[in-house]
């Protein structure tokens, strides 16, 4: 398999995500907005696209991260608790599996709810990312223009890089204006594969 290829199972799951998983996001931009949250549920799950660390509250998924070399489970948990101070953390594969259920084909109209920590600026950037559809890409400068901050492309790049929910907030669709696919926290090869398959799926659907 070349570096742009996916197995049929991977491609089918990516198609499902793109076609049947509308995403709604609660952006917690102040301590008051997350005051009612008391507990985080976390677990690792094997999916057609790889092993994912899933964390969430009673209101939705807060993190969806691919496994990365050198990044331990303990480090991910420490980072999560720094973002959500004062919360308890429970390892709960059944609970996080229920959060993932719409991604795995449990109902055409279920949709996915996210509950993320964000600065007001990050919330604007991530919301704009949700408007970049499968098969499309956007440059950092274009994304900055879309949120009304055309000179803030570097800050936009930092916000894109801080995205806590892989795939569902599609930071992989942001590319440099100069060409190429650019960086990706979970590997440039993975980003190329995602973009290549999304492009082909979009062409087939049109």
From TrEMBL:
It catalyses: a 4-O-methyl-thymidine in DNA + L-cysteinyl-[protein] = a thymidine in DNA + S-methyl-L-cysteinyl-[protein]; a 6-O-methyl-2'-deoxyguanosine in DNA + L-cysteinyl-[protein] = S-methyl-L-cysteinyl-[protein] + a 2'-deoxyguanosine in DNA. It holds the Pfam family DNA_binding_1. GO terms for biological process: DNA repair; methylation. It is an enzyme of class 2 (transferase). Its EC number is 2.1.1.63. Residues 120-199 form the Methylated-DNA-[protein]-cysteine S-methyltransferase DNA binding domain. PANTHER family: METHYLATED-DNA--PROTEIN-CYSTEINE METHYLTRANSFERASE. Belongs to the MGMT family. This is methylated-DNA--[protein]-cysteine S-methyltransferase.
């Amino acid at each position: 398999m070349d570096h742009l290829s996916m197995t049929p199972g991977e491609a089918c799951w990516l198609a499902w995500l793109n076609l049947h998983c509308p995403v709604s996001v609660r952006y917690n931009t102040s301590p008051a907005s997350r005051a009612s949250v008391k507990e985080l549920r976390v677990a690792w799950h094997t999916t057609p696209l790889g092993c994912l660390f899933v964390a969430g509250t009673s209101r939705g998924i807060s993190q969806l991260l691919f496994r990365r070399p050198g990044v331990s489970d303990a480090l991910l948990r420490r980072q999560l608790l720094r973002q959500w101070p004062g919360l308890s953390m429970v390892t709960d594969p059944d609970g996080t599996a229920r959060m993932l259920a719409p991604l795995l084909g449990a109902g055409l109209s279920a949709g996915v709810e996210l509950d993320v920590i964000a600065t007001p600026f990050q919330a604007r950037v991530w919301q704009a990312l949700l408007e970049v559809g499968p098969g499309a890409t956007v440059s950092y400068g274009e994304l900055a223009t879309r949120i009304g901050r055309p000179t803030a492309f570097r800050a936009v790049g930092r916000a894109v890089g801080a995205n806590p929910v892989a795939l569902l907030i599609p930071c992989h669709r942001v590319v440099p204006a100069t060409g190429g696919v650019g960086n990706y926290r979970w590997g440039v090869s993975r980003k190329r594969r995602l973009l290549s398959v999304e492009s082909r799926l979009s062409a087939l659907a049109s």
